[in-house]
Amino acid sequence: MINIIRVHNYDEASDQAFALMKQYLQPGKVLGLATGSTPLGLYARMVKDHEENGTSYLEIKTFNLDEYVGLEITHPESYYAFMHRNLFDHIDILEDNVHIPCGLGEDLEEKAREYDEMIDQDPVDVQILGIGSDGHIAFNEPGTPFDSLTHITDLAESTIQDNCRFFDNDITKVPKQAVTQGIGTIMKARNIILIATGVNKAQAVKDMIDGPIDEACPASILQKHPNVTVIVDEAAGSLLA
Length: 241
Ligand code: PGA
Fold this sequence. Notes:
Layout: E1 2-6, H1 10-22, E2 30-33, H2 40-53, E3 61-64, E4 66-68, H3 79-86, E5 98-99, H4 108-121, E6 126-129, E7 151-154, H5 157-163, E8 177-180, H6 183-187, E9 191-196, H7 202-210, E10 228-232
Parallel strand pairs: 1-10, 2-3, 2-6, 3-5, 6-9, 9-10
Antiparallel strand pairs: 4-8, 7-8
Bound molecules: 2-phosphoglycolic acid (PGA).
């Protein structure tokens, strides 16, 4: 069952996500982290809490959901760079405890298998998720098998369009492939917090919560997860009953 928290706006969504996250900011916990604009407010609150309250990440591990294929980690839009710029550089986490899928070099499928093995050894206590306007979670686009593990995938046209704003609005610069945790990988997380804000997420939110569990809407599988909280603002929740 999906627990829904309704808030007015993005700031309130970030406050709620942080309030839920806070209980996992303890030694030994494993955080599943996401990129995109959605979690930025949450990460800002984690940084502020670290600075003001001394919350330590020395004994916390993280696993990110995905990474572009073929983008150097030094590229500002790589998810490696994104995570360091917005979170890791501002807290006391150890680089050895940070895990981000590898999208560079040979044998990416083999590296993807190794990523799943690492997650199996250190299961994620809480996974942060955004949702795509097409219902994707991580880079699992519509049609991705629900039992998929970490894999290389082609980005949907709508996702390439959505991400164009980060690449000088030049579609030729947007990577066309990514390595992503599969839906089966994400479903192994013990707890999931999905944040959705803005009117362009409204249909995806409705399909996720009220629609059939169908691979046409990857996020709809969350209806089967035992411990999911979805935080929606007024716009993203506007089509819900
Ligand atoms: P966004 O992306 O946070 O930039 O809206 C969400 C997603 O595609 O999962």
